[in-house]
Amino acid sequence: MNFRSIFALTLGAACSVSVAAQEKTFKFEGNPLVRDNFTADPAPMVSGGRLYLYVGHDEYYEGQDKASGGKEFNITEWLCYSTEDMQTWTDHGAVHSPADYKWGDTKTAGVGTAWAAQVVERNGKFYYYTTSQGLGDFSGYAIGVAVSDSPTGPFVDPIGKPLVNDKMTDNGTRGWWNDIDPTVLIDDDGQAYLCWGNGTCFMAKLKDNMVELDGDIWVVDVPRYTEGPWLHKRNGIYYLTYASQGLGFGEAIDYCMAKDIRGPWKHCGQLTGSAENSFTIHPGIIEFKGQWYLFYHNATVTLDGHKGAIGRRSVCFDKLTYNPDGTMQYVAQSNVQATPASTNIPTSQYPMITSDSRGMFQVKAPNAKDVIVDICNKKYTMTNNGEGIWTATTDPLVVGPHYYFIEVDGARVSDPSSHTVYGCGLYASEIEVPETAEEAAYYTYNKDVAHGQVRLCQYWSSIENRPRHCYVYTPAEYDLNPKKRYPVMYLQHGMAENETGWHTQGKMANILDNNIASGKAVPMIVVMDNGNCDYGFGSKPGEKFDEFGASFFKVIVGDLIPYIDKTFRTKANRENRAMAGLSWGGWQSFNIAMTNTDKFAHLGSFSGAIFSLAQGDVKTAFNGVWSNADKFNKDFKTVFIGTGTEENLGSKKVNENLNNAGIKTHYYESQGTAHEWLTWRRCLNQFVPLIFK
Predict the structure, then answer these.
(1) Is 9 a residue whose pLDDT tops 50?
(2) pTM exceeds 0.85, yes or no
(3) 631, 618 contact by CB (below 8 A)
(4) Is there a contact between 492 and 580 (Cβ–Cβ < 8 Å)?
């Protein structure tokens, strides 16, 4: 087929439309780039000293917000913008439409019939690779191609059929959704490659005419692939960037690198995170006048009263930087705000928390060869800016506090810019992703309420024959009422933490202050001591599992309780004494309280390591303390079992076993949290209003 003749004939027959009258200019005022149209799926191209940006035009229609299954999107045409300096932009209006393809179904299908596209230049012609809904033998989404002598059109279809359709990709995972989002790379040797796909990433060679495939279609195996691929090449390295399966509902952008376009492809992680207000995101990468850029979309523009949404997106761009090894630095979207973490030391800007809940870290290590940030056992390779400043940005983190470490050339150290806390059996750096002010109110310092004190107290242990210390919280009124006596709660930490945990990570004092001030809880004393389990089990050679932390049982009964009752104005009886703890401290609390019911009448387990009670008959546990349910319920005032919905320590089963044995309990689940301090803060907040009533 003589494609050159067809091009000339088709272009000659096309209507001559003057686009100059439609063109207007505007200044870039920060992201999003375009403010007078909803735009999506950016595809940049450089030609003749200008950067051309092709985008899908998202258009609102009645019923859009109730539509689903792809019908939320309504791209009726593709628009073009261009610039010489990234500041002043020319709006060229609509340059192409799904209606330009005779094989396309734009009438019966209605909305949702067109998707992402890309333009490439070759031999003075411009090839527009698009996605449209096909008719008849071409039903389903298909890849079309159109050509023009100008980057702004008009573009016409030279082959009268799709370049790729479903019959050619029946091995895809999405059925009629397989063939969307084309991207084209023209390699250094002139060979052109087409890449596309939803759910499955396909690739094929293109013939020199750019409108026919050359050989077989192959599948590109890259992790977390969803859609929206983009190919580019730099310094002999191929890059495949794509919309990936992000955390939760939204897509993110991942990328892979390869020395050969057929792979193998090395997954390099996220290039940027999810888009604001949009579950889709689409990359476009280009070098222009010595600077690389990443284009993408979010959904943050409001037009004619219609807010940005799934099908009303907005194109953005940010600068892109490469590391010496060729990897790309994470792009923190410029519309995503970041603030210093609350756990930073004075004057430190880093670590930072982004508005989409990522941690941003920066470390100065000019002589280091390799630096890693390890947060909750997930490691992120930090990148060097060439001057010894290493940075990394994490995936989105769940709300609440997180322990982290910096590894410099294999050596684990604390972050000098962050406060340290005791956790993981050593002093660790901490960063906290904040909840909303409303969610965090119960553990936040409130200037309008009276505040108690936390005191460091030392005492002699006759059992261990050594001095020990503990932290003691006294309520705000304690020193104002010198004759009043108070109930006492003994509150324990977990494995590999210590007596400082509840006061620092747990925000215990704020939780007690706020509950007492509101009248939910009675004023009480809280004692926090080291449970002799401030290291990980297995650290001591020969120590048996049932011995771990068991030495504290005698200390609390023989030394600690007598010291507290002697030193503070306590109500020294079982009805006014509670035992509670988190994780391994929860197991200790069960052991101590249930074998000393003459000293305790209230018990709390927060994610307690009580999984052994999920097996067998609880009536035989702890010398049969639960064998007579009526007597136990009459004598023992409170049994509280709390857990996070995302952990699986058997707490719910233990609670069921106790209830089946006739034991009355209070059961609580912290929604969306795991084995973490946010779960334990919430449990404490639920527990203190129940006791000493």
Answers:
(1) no
(2) no
(3) no
(4) yes
